[in-house]
C-alpha cells in the first residue's frame, strides 16, 4: 500500500479479504492485525467472505520518521482446530512537503578584515530538508528583510549557500553587518527556513591621522614670551584601538612645540625666543603618527610669520670714518657717504641721519665747525633707537699756492781768509738791492763746491705741493755756478778765475712738485772780488745795519780796494776772530738749549704720498709745527711721528 503521510487519522484504506474453501462454520473468517500505533483493522459485516475489510489510520504518519510500515494481517476460520492464513502489508508512506529546510545554525558569526578583496568567501551556509524529491531541493537567498547595504555588499550562491564579498568593507563606515538568509525548498507549496549571519568587520590600519587647525594667531611678535599659544590643533584617526592612538610632534626642529590639551586636541606653543632678523618666517610641519603596524603618518603644514619689534638700533659699518676732502671744494659738495643698517623692517628699520654733538652743553652745530664730528642714525620705531659713528675729516691740499721767496737772513756772516778764499754762510752771503735783485760776493780762486749763497723759499701748501726744487735757469751751459736741487744752495761749479768777469747774474727758478707745478724766480747777482775784498765786504756786511747792507752790496771798484788793503786786512783779521768766537757761542747755545719741537714720538702713521725721494705721512696722535730757517712757523706743514716703540723709562 502507498499512503500519503498527509493522510488524516481515521482514514480507511480497503483491503482484500481472505477466502476459505470450506463451508459453514469452517468457512467463517476472522482477521487480526499485528500491533501498530499507526494502523488498525476495520472488519464490517458477517464473517463470510463477502464482509468488507479495511485498514484504519489511527495516527498521523511521518515519512521522515517511518517511511515504510510492515504489518501482518492474519485470517482465521471457525473450524476446529482453526486454520489461519497470513498476509504481509507493506505500507509505503508517500512524502508530503511538511518539513521546511533547516539550517545547522540559527546564527552564524563571522569576522572579516576591512579592505578584503572583492570575491572573498565570507561563509558557506548549510540547510537540510528531511523531505524528499523536490520537497528537499533547497534554494538559498537573502530574506526580504535584508537591507540594501547588505545586498550591495554581499552575494549568495543559491545552490551552494556561499556568501561572498562584492563590495569594499570599510570599518570606519560600518563595523558590522546582519545578513538574514532564507533557505527555501521546491515543494508545493514551498517551505522556508531562516538564519542570520552576523559579520564583524575587523579594523585595519588603513587611515592615517588627520590634523587640522581650529585656531591660528599669527603673526607672532618676535618678543613673544615662551609658552605663547600660536595655534589650536585637532587630531583624529578613524581607525580604532592601537590603530587610532596618535602621538604628535613638530618637524623639523624649531622654536615651536606641541602640547596635548584634551583628547584629540593639541596646542602649538612657543618654546624658544624668536628673532625676526634671523628668521622672519617659519614653515612648521605638525606630524601625527598612529600606533598601527606599520604606523601611518599624518602631516599638516603651518606657516608662522614673525612680526617685527624695534629691538635693533641702526649700526654703521665702521665706528670711525676717515674722510679725505680736498680744499677749495664747492659749497654743498659731497664729503662722504655713510650708511647705517637697521635689520628691523618697515618704520622700525627706516633710518634718518643727522650730525650730532653730544655731551653736556652739546647741541646742534654746523658741520663746517668740525674736524671730528659724530653722525647719528635714528630709526622710526617706538621707542626710536639710534646708533652713532665718528667722522674724522682730513683736508687734502690742493696746489693753489706758488713758492714764495724769503728775504735775506740778518745773522752775522762766517768768513775765512785762508789762501785768499772767502766763505759766506747761507744766512749772510745774500743781500737784496732796492730793485729786488739778490746780491752775493765770491772770491776769485774759490774752489769748486764753495757755497756762495742760499736761496730761501717757502710754499704755503703741504706735501708734494710744498716740496720745492731749485733750478738754474740762466746762464745755461757750463757756468761757474750751480744750484742744489733741493737745498737752494748756490755753490761754485769749478774754481773761479778772472776770466769769469767781475760779476755773474744768475736766474734761479723755484718749483714745487704739485700737479700743474707752480714756480717763482729769483735773480742773484754775484760779484767776483779778490779774497781780501771779499772778506772786507763780508765784514762790512756783518757790522753795518740793514740799511747800510744794501750799499755794501754794490760792486767795489779795483782802485778803491788797492788803496785800503792794509787797513782792511787788520779789520778782516779782527772780524774773523770775532766770527769764530761767535760761532763757538752759537754752537754751545744750540747744543744744550732745550728743543723747541718734538719731531718724533710713538704712534701709528698713515701714508699720504710717496715717491722715489721720500714719503709724507700723517698720524692721528702727534703733530708739531716746523720752523723753516729764520722765517715764521708754518702751522700747515705737519710732521708726524713714525711707528717707533716707546723708549724705556729713564730716571726722573
From TrEMBL:
List this protein's GO terms for biological process.
homophilic cell adhesion via plasma membrane adhesion molecules
Spans traversing the lipid bilayer? 567-589
Q: What is a GO molecular function of this protein?
A: calcium ion binding
Q: Which UniProt keywords apply?
A: Calcium, Cell adhesion, Cell membrane, Glycoprotein, Membrane, Repeat, Signal, Transmembrane, Transmembrane helix
Domain Cadherin residue range list: 2-103, 104-211, 212-316, 317-405, 446-543
Q: What topology does the record note for this protein and the membrane?
A: Single-pass type I membrane protein
One Pfam entry name: Cadherin
Compartment annotation? Cell membrane
**What would be one Gene Ontology cellular-component term for the protein?**
plasma membrane
Q: What is this protein called?
A: PCDA3 protein
Q: Which organism is it from?
A: Platysteira castanea
Amino acid at each position: 500500500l502507498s499512503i500519503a503521510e498527509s493522510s488524516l487519522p481515521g482514514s480507511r484504506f480497503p483491503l482484500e479479504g481472505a477466502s476459505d474453501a470450506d463451508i459453514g462454520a469452517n468457512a467463517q473468517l476472522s482477521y487480526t492485525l499485528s500491533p501498530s500505533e499507526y494502523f488498525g483493522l476495520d472488519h464490517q459485516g458477517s464473517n463470510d467472505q463477502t464482509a468488507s475489510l479495511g485498514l484504519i489510520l489511527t495516527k498521523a504518519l511521518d515519512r521522515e520518521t517511518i517511511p515504510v510500515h510492515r504489518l501482518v494481517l492474519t485470517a482465521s476460520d471457525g473450524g476446529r482446530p482453526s486454520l489461519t492464513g497470513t498476509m504481509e502489508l507493506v505500507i509505503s508512506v508517500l512524502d508530503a512537503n511538511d518539513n521546511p529546510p533547516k539550517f545547522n545554525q540559527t546564527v552564524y558569526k563571522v569576522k572579516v578584515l576591512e579592505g578584503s578583496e572583492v570575491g572573498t568567501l565570507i561563509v558557506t551556509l548549510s540547510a537540510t530538508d528531511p523531505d524528499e524529491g523536490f520537497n528537499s531541493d533547497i534554494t538559498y537567498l537573502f530574506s526580504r528583510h535584508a537591507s540594501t547595504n547588505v545586498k550591495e555588499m554581499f552575494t549568495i550562491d543559491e545552490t551552494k549557500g556561499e556568501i561572498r564579498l562584492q563590495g569594499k568593507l570599510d570599518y570606519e563606515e560600518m563595523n558590522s553587518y546582519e545578513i538574514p538568509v532564507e533557505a527555501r525548498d521546491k515543494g508545493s507549496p514551498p517551505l522556508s527556513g531562516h538564519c542570520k549571519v552576523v559579520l564583524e568587520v575587523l579594523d585595519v590600519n588603513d587611515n592615517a591621522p588627520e590634523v587640522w587647525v581650529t585656531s591660528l594667531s599669527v603673526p607672532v611678535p618676535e618678543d613673544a614670551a615662551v609658552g605663547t599659544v600660536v595655534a589650536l590643533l585637532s587630531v583624529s584617526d578613524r581607525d580604532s584601538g592601537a590603530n587610532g592612538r596618535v602621538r604628535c610632534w613638530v618637524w623639523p626642529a624649531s622654536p615651536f612645540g606641541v602640547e596635548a590639551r584634551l583628547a584629540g586636541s593639541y596646542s602649538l606653543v612657543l618654546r624658544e625666543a624668536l628673532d625676526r632678523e634671523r628668521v622672519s618666517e617659519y614653515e612648521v610641519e605638525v606630524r601625527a603618527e598612529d600606533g598601527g603596524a606599520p604606523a601611518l603618518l599624518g602631516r599638516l603644514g603651518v606657516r608662522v610669520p614673525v612680526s617685527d619689534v624695534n629691538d635693533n638700533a641702526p649700526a654703521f659699518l665702521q665706528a670711525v670714518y676717515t674722510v679725505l676732502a680736498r680744499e677749495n671744494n664747492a659749497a654743498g659738495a659731497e664729503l662722504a657717504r655713510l650708511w647705517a643698517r637697521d635689520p628691523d623692517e618697515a618704520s622700525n628699520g627706516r633710518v634718518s641721519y643727522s650730525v650730532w654733538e653730544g655731551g653736556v652743553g652739546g647741541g646742534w652745530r654746523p658741520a663746517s665747525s668740525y674736524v671730528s664730528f659724530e653722525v647719528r642714525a635714528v630709526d622710526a620705531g617706538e621707542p626710536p633707537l639710534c646708533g652713532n659713528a665718528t667722522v674724522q675729516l682730513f683736508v687734502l691740499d690742493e696746489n693753489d699756492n706758488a713758492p714764495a721767496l724769503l728775504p735775506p737772513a740778518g745773522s752775522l756772516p762766517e768768513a775765512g781768509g785762508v789762501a785768499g778764499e772767502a766763505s759766506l754762510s747761507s744766512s749772510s752771503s745774500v743781500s737784496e738791492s732796492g730793485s729786488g735783485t739778490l746780491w752775493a760776493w765770491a772770491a776769485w780762486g774759490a774752489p769748486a763746491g764753495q757755497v756762495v749763497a742760499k736761496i730761501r723759499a717757502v710754499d704755503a701748501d703741504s706735501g708734494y705741493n710744498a716740496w720745492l726744487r731749485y733750478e738754474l735757469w740762466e746762464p745755461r751751459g757750463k757756468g761757474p755756478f750751480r744750484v742744489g736741487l733741493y737745498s737752494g744752495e748756490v755753490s761754485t761749479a769749478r774754481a773761479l778765475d778772472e776770466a769769469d768777469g767781475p760779476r755773474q747774474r744768475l736766474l734761479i727758478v723755484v718749483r714745487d712738485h704739485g700737479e700743474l707745478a707752480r714756480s717763482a724766480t729769483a735773480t742773484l747777482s754775484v760779484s767776483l772780488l779778490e779774497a781780501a775784498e771779499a772778506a772786507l765786504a763780508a765784514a762790512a756786511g756783518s757790522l753795518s745795519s740793514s740799511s747800510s747792507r744794501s750799499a755794501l752790496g754794490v760792486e767795489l771798484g779795483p782802485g778803491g780796494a788797492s788803496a785800503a788793503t792794509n787797513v782792511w786786512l787788520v779789520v778782516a783779521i779782527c772780524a774773523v776772530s770775532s766770527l769764530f768766537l761767535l760761532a763757538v757761542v752759537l754752537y754751545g747755545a744750540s747744543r744744550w738749549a732745550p728743543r723747541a719741537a718734538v719731531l718724533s714720538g710713538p704712534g701709528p702713521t698713515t701714508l699720504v704720498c710717496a715717491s722715489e725721494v721720500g714719503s709724507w705721512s700723517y698720524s692721528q696722535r702727534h703733530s708739531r709745527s716746523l720752523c723753516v730757517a729764520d722765517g715764521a712757523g708754518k702751522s700747515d706743514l705737519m710732521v708726524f711721528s713714525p711707528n717707533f716703540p716707546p723708549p724705556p723709562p729713564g730716571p726722573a
